[in-house]
Specification:
Layout lengths: L1 H37 L34 E3 L2 E3 L3 E3 L9 H15 L2 E3 L4 H6 L7 H6 L5 E6 L9 H11 L3 E6 L1 H6 L10 H11 L4 E5 L6 H9 L4 E3 L8 H8 L2 H7 L9 H8 L8 E4 L6 H9 L4 E4 L4 H6 L1 H20 L6 H4 L6 E3 L3 E3 L12
Parallel strand pairs: 3-4, 3-10, 4-5, 5-6, 6-7, 7-8, 8-9, 9-10
Antiparallel strand pairs: 1-2, 11-12
Length: 382
């Protein structure tokens, strides 16, 4: 009997040691991600979001009262004071608890949405890293979105793990992130994306909260967006290119050979503005479109709304403030909201519905911009 039990115990201990080492490596990787993004070393340089090509027609006679502008919206049955979401930043590392507390407190004060970073470590180890019920306690009235990697559905995750992800932060919805480029470049990445849509569809049908899907910085194409919506996904975050490049971030963590291998993909992806234009016509009643990826300021928020986004997410630009304090993050997003309101005022948009109809200038050859499409010369405000 001893000869049987002893080897079993040996292998069990070996498995536990290997699993603990893997969790430690994941935590270390996420800490590296945070540092690299905060230092600006993950930014795409040769590709832009496309937002600068979206130019509003200035309305010199807006006929609205700035103080009466309404940029509020509803999301997941909760009222938001602005169409903003603090996008997934970090989860499962030593600094995460402090950052997540700052984000939750700031979002609660401003009444904007919160999408947490990956909860994989918290689900697998029970080490919440700031992703526990205290998050909901700090932000009881705002929508909170849970987050795990979609590919984990091919590596043992299913409904029980998804439900645990939701329950640990009392999330209003669960977001699955798609990151094939990052996994392809990451050393030891999870690269089995085969038949993943079927697993997403099954989860959408069984999870008691809405299921969303997002990219992480390379964008969702119209074809992928349509397949996800047909599979029962109700929230799409295009997370387009033009901001953080996860190919670049992963390369920064690796040896010279990996950096050379990843270099051609630093500017890979669908620009955020293009991804929004492609996805917006596909969204039906009850579906929510989030625009994120390289969002710099409130004017970009207005542009994303004009292109069809219901909400707009920001992560990297808010990270320095989130690392510093809740007060710093409140100030940061207060400025973003003010910039959004200025854009609304100068387009004569009383609310977000009006902003979605605001006239745009059209690019012409030679770098000139024409008067707004659909506006005659008689009623065009110069």
């Amino acid at each position: 009997m001893l000869l049987v039990l002893e080897p079993c115990g040996f292998w069990r201990n070996m498995f536990r040691a290997a699993w603990a080492q893997q969790m430690t490596e994941i935590s270390r990787r996420k800490t590296d991600h945070l540092r690299i993004v905060a230092e600006g070393r993950g930014q795409q340089s040769g590709l832009t979001t496309g937002f600068d090509a979206v130019r509003f027609a200035h309305v010199a006679l807006p006929e609205v009262d700035y103080d009466q502008l309404d940029c509020g919206t509803q999301f997941l049955g909760r009222q938001l004071d602005a169409p903003l979401l603090v996008s997934a930043m970090t989860g499962g590392n030593d600094e995460a608890e402090r950052i997540n507390a700052h984000i939750a407190e700031a979002c609660a004060e401003l009444r904007i949405g919160l999408a947490v970073g990956s909860q994989r470590i918290a689900v697998e180890t029970g080490d919440a890293g700031g992703l526990g019920r205290q998050l909901r306690a700090r932000a009881p009235d705002i929508p909170i979105l849970g987050n795990i990697g979609a590919v984990q559905l091919n590596y043992g995750f299913g409904l029980p793990e998804a439900q645990r992800t939701v329950d640990m932060i009392e999330a209003d919805a669960l977001i699955l992130h798609l990151n094939p480029l990052q996994e392809a470049i990451q050393q030891g990445g999870d690269r089995n994306f085969a038949a993943l849509l079927l697993r997403i569809e099954a989860l959408a049908a069984s999870l008691p909260v809405p299921l969303g899907v997002k990219e992480v910085g390379a964008g969702l194409s119209a074809q992928v967006a349509r397949r996800l919506l047909d599979a029962g996904v109700t929230i799409l975050d295009v997370a387009g290119a033009g901001g953080t490049s996860w190919a670049r971030v992963e390369a920064e963590r690796g040896p010279a050979r990996l950096q050379a291998l990843a270099a051609p993909f630093h500017d890979w992806g669908i620009p955020t503005a293009d991804a929004l234009r492609a996805a917006a016509p596909l969204m039906g009643a009850g579906k929510v479109l989030i625009g994120s990826g390289g969002v710099r300021h409130g004017l970009d928020v207005a542009r994303a709304i004009r292109l069809g986004a219901d909400l707009v997410g920001q992560a990297a630009r808010a990270l320095p403030a989130a690392r510093h304090s809740a007060e710093a993050l409140v100030q940061h997003f207060s400025d973003v909201v003010t910039q959004l309101r200025i854009a609304m005022f100068c387009t004569g948009s009383r609310d977000l519905a009006a902003l979605r109809r605001a006239a745009l200038l059209q690019p012409m050859p030679g770098g000139i911009w024409s008067q707004a499409a659909g506006v005659s010369s008689d009623d065009f405000d110069a």
